[in-house]
């Protein structure tokens, strides 16, 4: 019974729409506002509509079966009917026109010349295409698909018809309420090695990659698969792209929105909504020419500034560059050395190759021939294979600026950039020696942590050799013994012999998984470039912080055995302590002591929490940080420069003792910095010494500078980067200096300290801080000087001009961790800036 009833219903109840709906407009049957034309399989509908809050009426096509009216095509988008008097008719000349009230001047018309005027019809097809047919012929005289709006539908062709010069591209709506022709467009640029572009006005906003065989190279979403079939044609007749869908019950569309974002989405009936499948541009590096010419946008850069000059190039506008504005791009000063002067090519891996609209392509050339071809022609700046698959097919050469590149984590192809002999030698040395690996490591965002890991791995191997006397999850251990070992012997460079006398324990994965609730999100403390940090509790109740390295961050670490030993030996009460590690399968983790009070910045920049820190406590914190840095600079025998000292890198234990964290990456990136001798400045703006921010020069004195800033922040409870009304060009350093010169330094002291502090002592601290931030590094005290000045009342000299950080407005899109203001110091400019007050 249950089965029979519905079947009977189907047979007995005729569907009304079958009888009444029409898909065709004949000469004597105008479509009035309110009538709806429905395609034969009821997929699309055509009629008058209004959008959003607007009362204006447009003729459009929408999905008949999608409840929320989704317009895919609009006829009179720039000439709406102002009331409901609109008519869509085949006029006396056989053309298709829309009239409002005035029937002598059409608001819109399809541009056709009809030979037998009284016998043409307009028909809505099941593809959503409105076609004008003559004598019932199947090939249309005119079709709506040749004049797309903001939506690309399956079977719709975009591109240029080289014979008729008809160019089909999407144009955005003006707004959600107004389907009028907006400023953004999306289509094929037929020049060079053709690519898809989104333009905003005349300016490119996004660029797709060139079409290779059956796909857009490097865009997996656009590859043919079981649903999509994309066809690209480039011959003397046309250049075009069509995508088809094998299952017509799937509604898929590509929409260009008002802001210039293209998005492909699919209708899911189950959830009754359009589900996004792909969109572009999605991140900053997708924006066309984000980093200017000859520069690469790498969203995975450690210091969160994504622009890097290509090998052999330097920032064109150095100041802008340090303000994290890469749009000026990069230049190469010695072009002459690039022509028959022993030059060669440096590989830039995994990139979206530069804009190829002016590139030369030869699909029958291999990569070796391509290299030779590029080398032969002095105007050739770079080459790559056209198709990176199967070891590289075809040859693309670029002559001129290389624009709009970005790095992908796993897609992309290798680009070979022409460099002069000097730079070629530098790169060859790096890739042969360990230096290059260092750079790779830095680029892969692995922090200093990985060095501990290697230490762990080797130690673990050693342990296995020794047939494991100790249980692996043993918790009591000491690094001190290891340090003693180091004190007794010269720094070892070969860890492979596993003569490490350290008790750094190895934890089992299941122990850590249990401790962190299987890495549950509730246990997550934070996330960094290296991976995530979790809080955990071991079975014995001990609290730990687990840094779980991202799976891809561990490559090429063997070469760093040396550093592993060195850093593992760091042991000081004011440095965060490592408890052990875990290396199992794909997982690499470091286990640290857990510090319940989080970081110093969560206290000093929080009005309520700051009150917990009275002056004696603050002084203890200042003194502890100073001793921690002193240890790094001098006492550890290693001379480690932290390079990123700031309030958020100082953690507080339960007794509010300060512990410096992330000290590992400092020196390693320091090494890379020297070798690269370039523009990658790591650190945090606001804490950077002028010579470091400007010239990339760093020394122990740049840490002293950062410490000075930190000290002022602790005393005042204010961020260095805060805005000061009375001196809008200034930051905290400048503000304090201003007050100091007028003998009003005590005004900066945090008011939550109340009255309970010795003014002299605090002012002395301000004086020491000002000594630390002096403009010339040579004038700044060393950390041992700072510690002794803090520790006794020896007379401190008068501070001179601080390294003054001029503030500039700076716009960053989307990266909240980037400083919202850039700061730079220009030695020559400094005086004028200050006197200008
Ligand atoms: C209708 O349009 C024609 C042509 O533009 C114009 O001459 C005429 O005045 C219009 N009629 C009305 C009533 O607006
Ligand atoms: C008709 O042709 C004109 C000029 O060639 C063009 O501006 C207009 O967009 C065309 N309209 C349609 C609907 O094809
Ligand atoms: C169509 O027009 C032709 C003349 O151009 C005329 O002979 C014929 O009768 C017309 N047919 C109809 C159906 O109106
Ligand atoms: C009009 O088109 C029909 C086919 O739809 C055809 O049979 C008829 O002969 C045509 N009439 C004229 C006058 O062209
Ligand atoms: C339609 O029919 C008319 C008259 O028979 C003829 O002149 C015209 O060429 C035909 N058009 C097409 C597109 O077949
Ligand atoms: C894809 O489309 C092209 C042209 O429409 C057709 O020749 C080809 O057979 C299609 N491929 C598949 C897998 O449907
Ligand atoms: C190569 O270029 C670098 C940087 O532009 C430059 O310092 C060096 O002198 C050049 N080498 C030669 C041989 O011209
Ligand atoms: C492409 O390369 C092949 C092989 O090197 C060569 O024979 C051919 O002439 C080149 N074609 C063009 C258009 O340069
Ligand atoms: C080098 O390439 C440029 C750009 O394609 C071309 O105009 C020029 O003729 C080439 N020069 C030589 C010597 O092949
Ligand atoms: C780097 O190694 C390659 C191959 O191992 C060798 O051909 C090249 O000469 C080496 N370069 C330097 C600068 O050592």
TrEMBL record:
Alphabetical list of Pfam families matching this protein: B_lectin (PF01453), PAN_2 (PF08276), PK_Tyr_Ser-Thr (PF07714), S_locus_glycop (PF00954)
Binding site for ATP: 547
Catalytic activities: L-seryl-[protein] + ATP = O-phospho-L-seryl-[protein] + ADP + H(+); L-threonyl-[protein] + ATP = O-phospho-L-threonyl-[protein] + ADP + H(+)
Lineage: Eukaryota, Viridiplantae, Streptophyta, Embryophyta, Tracheophyta
Domain of life, source organism: Eukaryota
Signal peptide (from-to): 1-21
Domain Bulb-type lectin: 22-145
One GO process term, biological-process aspect: immune response
Enzyme Commission designation: 2.7.11.1
Protein name as it appears in the record: Receptor-like serine/threonine-protein kinase
GO MF, one example: ATP binding
Gene Ontology annotations for the cellular component aspect, listed alphabetically: plasma membrane
């Amino acid at each position: 019974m249950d089965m029979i009833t519905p079947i009977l219903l189907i047979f007995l109840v005729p569907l009304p729409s079958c009888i009444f709906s029409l898909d065709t407009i004949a000469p004597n049957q105008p479509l009035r506002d309110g009538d709806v034309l429905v395609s034969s399989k009821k997929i699309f509908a055509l009629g008058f509509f209004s959008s959003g809050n607007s009362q204006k009426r447009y003729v459009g096509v929408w999905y008949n079966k999608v409840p929320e009216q989704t317009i895919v095509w609009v006829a009179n988008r720039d000439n709406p009917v102002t009331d409901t008097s609109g008519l869509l008719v085949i006029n006396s000349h056989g053309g298709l026109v829309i009239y409002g009230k005035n029937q002598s001047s059409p608001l819109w018309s399809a541009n056709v010349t009809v030979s037998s005027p009284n016998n043409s019809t307009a028909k809505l097809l099941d593809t959503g295409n409105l076609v004008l047919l003559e004598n019932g012929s199947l090939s249309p005289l005119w079709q709506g698909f040749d004049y797309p709006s903001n939506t690309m539908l399956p079977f719709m062709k975009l591109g240029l018809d080289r014979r008729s010069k008809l160019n089909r591209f999407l144009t955005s709506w003006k707004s959600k309420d107004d389907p009028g022709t907006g400023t953004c467009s999306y289509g094929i640029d037929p020049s060079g090695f053709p690519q898809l572009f989104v333009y905003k006005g005349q300016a490119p906003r996004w660029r797709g990659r060139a079409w290779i065989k059956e796909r857009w190279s490097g865009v997996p979403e656009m590859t043919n698969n079981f649903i999509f079939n994309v066809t690209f044609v480039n011959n003397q007749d046309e250049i075009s792209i069509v995508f088809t869908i094998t299952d017509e019950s799937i509604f898929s569309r590509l929409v260009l929105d008002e802001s210039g974002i293209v998005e492909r989405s699919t209708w899911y009936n189950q959830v009754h909504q359009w589900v996004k499948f792909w969109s572009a541009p999605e991140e900053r590096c997708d924006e066309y020419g984000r980093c200017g010419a000859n520069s690469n946008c790498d969203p995975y850069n450690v210091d969160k500034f994504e622009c890097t000059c290509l090998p052999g190039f330097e920032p064109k506008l150095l100041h802008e560059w340090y303000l994290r504005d890469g749009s000026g791009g990069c230049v190469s000063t010695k072009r002459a050395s690039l022509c028959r002067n022993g030059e060669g090519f440096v590989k830039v891996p995994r990139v979206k190759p530069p804009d190829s609209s002016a590139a030369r392509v030869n699909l029958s050339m291999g990569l070796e021939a391509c290299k030779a071809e590029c080398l032969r022609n002095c105007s050739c700046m770079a080459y790559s294979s056209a198709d990176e698959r199967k070891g590289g097919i075809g040859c693309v050469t670029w002559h001129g600026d290389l624009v709009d590149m970005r790095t992908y984590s796993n897609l992309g192809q290798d680009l070979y950039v022409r460099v002069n002999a000097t730079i070629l030698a530098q790169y060859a040395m790096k890739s042969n020696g360990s230096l290059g690996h260092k750079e790779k490591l830095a680029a892969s965002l692995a922090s200093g942590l990985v060095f501990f890991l290697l230490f762990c791995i080797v130690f673990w191997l050693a342990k296995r050799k020794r047939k494991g006397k100790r249980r692996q999850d043993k918790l009591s251990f000491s690094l001190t013994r290891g340090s003693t070992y180091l004190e007794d012997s010269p720094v070892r460079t070969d860890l492979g012999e596993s003569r490490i006398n350290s008790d750094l324990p190895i934890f089992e994965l299941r122990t850590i998984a249990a401790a962190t609730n299987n890495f549950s999100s509730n246990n997550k403390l934070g996330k960094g470039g290296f991976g995530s940090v979790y809080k955990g509790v071991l079975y014995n109740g001990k609290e730990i912080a687990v840094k779980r390295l991202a799976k891809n961050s561990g490559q090429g670490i063997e070469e760093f055995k040396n550093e592993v030993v060195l850093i593992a030996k760091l042991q000081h009460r004011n440095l965060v302590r490592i408890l052990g590690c875990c290396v199992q399968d794909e997982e690499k983790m470091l286990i640290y002591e857990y510090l319940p009070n989080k970081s110093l910045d969560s206290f000093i920049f929080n009005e309520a929490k700051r009150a917990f820190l009275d002056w004696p406590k603050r002084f203890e914190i200042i003194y502890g940080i100073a001793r921690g840095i002193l240890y790094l600079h001098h006492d550890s025998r290693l001379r480690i420069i932290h390079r990123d000292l700031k309030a958020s890198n100082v953690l507080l234990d339960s007794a509010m003792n300060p512990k410096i964290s992330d000290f590992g990456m400092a020196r390693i990136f320091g090494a890379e910095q020297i070798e690269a001798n370039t523009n990658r400045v790591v650190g945090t703006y606001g804490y950077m010494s002028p010579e470091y921010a400007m010239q990339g020069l760093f020394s122990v004195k740049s840490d002293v500078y950062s410490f000075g800033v930190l000290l002022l922040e602790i005393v005042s409870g204010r961020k260095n980067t805060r805005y000061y009304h009375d001196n809008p060009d200034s930051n905290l350093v400048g503000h304090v200096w201003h007050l100091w010169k007028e003998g009003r330094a005590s005004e900066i002291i945090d008011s939550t300290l109340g009255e309970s502090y010795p003014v002299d002592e605090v002012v002395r601290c301000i004086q020491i801080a000002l000594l630390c931030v002096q403009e010339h590094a040579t004038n700044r005290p060393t950390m041992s000087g700072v510690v002794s000045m803090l520790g006794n009342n020896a007379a401190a000299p008068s501070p001179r001009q601080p390294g003054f950080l001029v503030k500039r407005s700076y716009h960053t899109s989307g990266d909240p961790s980037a400083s919202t203001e850039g700061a730079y110091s220009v030695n020559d400019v400094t005086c004028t800036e200050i006197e200008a007050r």
